[in-house]
Amino acid sequence: MLTHSDLHQTDIHQTDLDHSIHEECGVFGIFHSGDCEAAPDIYYGLCALQHRGQESCGIAVCDTEGPRGNISYHKDMGLAGEVFHSDILTSLKGNIGIGHVRYSTTGASTAKNAQPLVLNYLKGTLALAHNGNITNSESLRQTLQENGAIFHSSTDSEVIACHIARERTRTACVEDAICKTAEKLKGGYALVVMSPRKLIGVRDPFGLKPLCLGRREGSYVLASESCALVAVGAEFVRDIVPGEIVTITKDGIHSDTRLVQTKRAHCIFEYIYFARLDSVMDGIRIYDARFHAGKALAASCPADADIVVGVPDSGLTAATGFAEASGIPFALAFYKNSYVGRTFIKPTQKERESAVHMKLSVLSSVVRGKRLVLIDDSIVRGTTIAGLIRMLKEAGALEVHVRISSPPFLYPCYYGTDVPSNEQLIASSRTSEEICAQIGADSLGYMKIEDFRRMTGELPLCKACFDNQYPV
Length: 472
Ligand code: AMP
Hints:
This protein has 472 residues and is α+β, with helices and mostly antiparallel strands. Helix content is 32%, strand content 25%. It has a 7-stranded antiparallel sheet with strand order 3-2-4-1-10-9-11. Strands 5-6-7-8-12-13 form a 6-stranded antiparallel sheet, with helices on one face. Strands 17-20-21-22 form a 4-stranded parallel sheet, with helices on both faces.
């Protein structure tokens, strides 16, 4: 394992830290063996994965029996329901396809960077959708540029697609070109790639990013999370093995395990926050993980209070676990307006602060005159929790004891979590007491790092954002 400072000196360029696009996205792919249209299923899959990215989305499809290279696609800024009207979906013809929902946090929130990325090259056409962050993309980009490649965006996805295209000129099949590319990639990634006859899924050798396989009669599905399989009526078959490359053609499915390694490091933040509550990831039910985190928190950081409340929606499940373990009743303290986007996504601090008020209002009859335990899954900058404590106290709460169902977030993530630098992490330069005072809480407690076992059992984890141990 390397630490933050080791990484800083070796793989990661300063430009990666400050300016690169940190993404937490969702990918989806489907291969229908009959002449069923892929686009409507991809649309439903993207709706199910919408929590992983709300800025832009896209679908690319192809007819495996049609002329080679005929990939049609549509992508734009906005939610899947805003971007894909029925006339657009009907115009996307083909039995295989891939889709993407994107979340970016720096300035590069433009339609140009929406995915899937469709690339025409010497040997044909391919479409690619990517979740994750490639830590050596700048050096790969430079090498490709030295060899004549011209880039149209600053995305990792374009670097990966160009690399595949270059390798394809000297390999027998696209799967081999993808394998040669994946050998070079460092970081966390889940990819779905479509060539005119094939759907290919790849997961990084540590398993930092999730990808699973489903089946519906003669059709195969690849998705970031199992909730998207349910959305299209597919049954869960298995998680893609970290490092595995699966190729789906009309003849069935083939697995390439050349890059599979023994060392695994699944991102703990999927279980803490990213994944949808009804997903199952690498054998762990997300709901169970969060419920057990709440129970563990009640045992390690008890509080004397009248009710347990949760931050909607991120803290609610852990709050029910905390309530069960502590015997303090669970109550709803907030009404959430579900028609306003996530507050974290707003680019400036001022916008983030006002968005908290737009999204939530306090149920004052529940909290007035009460001592509260307020649960959330994490504190990053401290904006959300500070705003909520203020609102609870204004509504008459006597005390607010904050309990966080993960340890202090101390180190940046280079694998696709949206936290580009240390300065933005409230816990990296302040003690617990200082944070408590700054957010206006009466007390503050965090889950212990050892208690991750209660969430995910023996699953090997990347928890570098908490312990500074980066998998390499
Ligand atoms: P902050 O307001 O900056 O302290 O962010 C903490 C809130 O954002 C919590 O409610 C978390 O559930 C949520 N959160 C934590 N990490 C992320 C992330 N990488 N992307 C989006 N939201 C997040």
